[in-house]
C-alpha cells in the first residue's frame, strides 16, 4: 500500500511537486498537465487522478510567472472536453459489453439505469454538474454514451462544463493560491477543495436513504 501513501502525499503537496515539474520539464509541463486532466476525465479506470486540486495548483503556479495562465486555461479546457468526448464514445461503442461483463464489478446495469434516471430528472445539465464531483466526473460521460443521450446534446453541455470547471478552479488558484495564508496552509486548502467536491455525493446519498426510509415507514 506504499503507492497509496505516495499518491496522497502528491495530492497534498501538489504545489511543491508542480513547482519541481516546471523546473525540470519547462514548457513540457503544459503537455503533462493536459495528459493528466485528459486521463482523469477520459477513462473510467482513472478517476483517482487529481482534478480540482491540480487545476487550483496549476493556477497558483501560473500566478508566480512559471506558467502562462492563458495557455493553462486553454490547454486544460481542451483536455477536459476531449477527455469527456473520448469517454462518451468508449461508452457508446463498448459500454454495453463492459456492463454485461460479469468480471467487471464497478459498472453494472443498475448503475446505468440509475444514471439514466438522473439524466431524465436533471437533463443535460447532469454533464455540467458532474464536472464538480470526483469519480462521477469520470463516470457520467461514459454512461451518457451507453445510454440514450444524443452526441449533439452531449457535446454542448460537455463544452460548457469543461469551460466553467477549468476556468473556475485555475483562476481561483491564480488569484488566491499565492495569498500567504493559503500558501502556508496549502494542504488544508486541498482538503477543503476535496471535501467540497464530495459534498454533492454525500448529500445525494443522504437524500436517497431518507427517501427509502420514508417509503418504508409509509
Automatic annotation (TrEMBL):
Residues 49-173 form the VTT domain. InterPro entries: DedA (IPR058127), DedA-like (IPR032818), VTT_dom (IPR032816). Keywords: Cell membrane, Membrane, Transmembrane, Transmembrane helix. It is found in: Cell membrane. The keyword Lipid biosynthesis does not apply. It comes from the Bacteria. The chain crosses the membrane at residues 27-49, 56-82, 154-176, 188-206. It is a multi-pass membrane protein. GO terms for cellular component: plasma membrane. NCBIfam families: PRK10847.1. Belongs to the DedA family. This is VTT domain-containing protein. It comes from Candidatus Gottesmanbacteria bacterium RIFCSPLOWO2_01_FULL_43_11b.
